[in-house]
Task: structure prediction
Amino acid sequence: MWREDLLAGLASLTLIAGLFLDGWNHINLQNGALGGFFTPWHGLLYLGFTLAAAWVLTRNPHLYRRDVDAKTTMHPLLGTRLRYPLAVAGLIIANVGLLGDVGWHTAFGEESGVARVIAPFHLVLFVGAALLISAPLRSGWHAPDVYPENGSLGQLLPPLISLTLLTALVAFMFQWLSAFVDWTPALRFDRVPPALAADPSVAGTVEYSEVARILVTNFIFLAPILMALRRWRLPFGSVTLVWTVVAAGLQSLSEFQTWATVIAAFVGGLAADICLTLTNRSGRSTLGCRLLGGFGPLALWGAYFLALGVVHHDAWPGDLYLGTMCVAAMTGLALSFVAEPIADPASPRSAARR
Result:
C-alpha cells in the first residue's frame, strides 16, 4: 500500500507541476489571457493527469476487465470495492468539467482576469483534480497499520505529498487573493502611483486587498495542517514541507518577484514544526493545535513582513501589519478549536468534560 500511495502521489506531483507551469504561462507570456486547450504549455498538465488517472484505474481492474471477479469484495454503497474510490469519481468529474469548459468557451468565449481561474467549469475541473490527488491522503487516513499515528516522516511521506499537493491546488485557485502571488496590474503598497496615493478610496482599496490576501492565505496554509493533526502527530518537517513548497509554487507564478517570502514560509513552517515536536513529546496534541493556530501565524507573517520590508522594500504601515498579524493569529487559534483531535468518548478526560 505504501508503494502504491507513493506512486499515486508522484503522478499527482506531475499534474500539479503542469498546472503551475500553465499558470505561469498565462500570467507571464499571455498577459493574463486564457489561450487555447491544446498548447505545448498544457503538455505536462495533461501528462500528469494521464499518469494519475492510469495509476488509479490500474488499481481497479474490475472496472474494465471481465475476468476479474469483484463480487467477493463488495462495497456497501458502490456495489464494488474500489481502490481510491473518490479518485475514480474525480476522474469522471474532471472529464465532465473538461467537456463542459469546451462548450462554455464555444458559447461565451474565453474568460479574463479572476474569472479565468474561477469560471464555473474550471471549478468543476479543480474539484475533480482535488479528488484525484487526495487519493494517497485518504488511503493513509484509513490505514493505521501502514500509517501509524506517530509515524516518521518517511512512513507518512505519501499522505504528506498528497496533503502538500492538495494545499497547492487550493492555493492555486485563490492565486488572485494570495500573499505569495503578485498579479499585474494589481496594486501593492509599493506600486500605487504617486498621483493616486493621496486618494482615500485608492489607498483604502489597496489596504483591504492586502489584508485580505494575508487572511485568506493564512486559512489555506493552516486548515490542511490542522486537519492532518486530527489523524497524526505530524513528524518534524511536515509543516515546513507543506508551507515552503506551496509558497514556492505560488511565487513561481509571478517569477519570484518577492522571492524572500518563500524563506519566510520556511521560517514559519520551521517554528510551527518546533511547537508540534515539543508538544508531541509530552503527548499534548491539543496544545499542539493551539500553538500551531495561534503562534504559527505570528511566526509566518512576522517573517513575511520582515522579508517584504527589508529585502523587497515594500514596508506596510506599522499599525496595519501588526493588526493583520494579530487577526491572523486570532483566526488561526479559533480554527484550531474546530480541528481539535477527536477524543475517545470513553476516556477519563472526555468524561470529565461532560
Summary: The chain is about 65% helix and 0% strand.
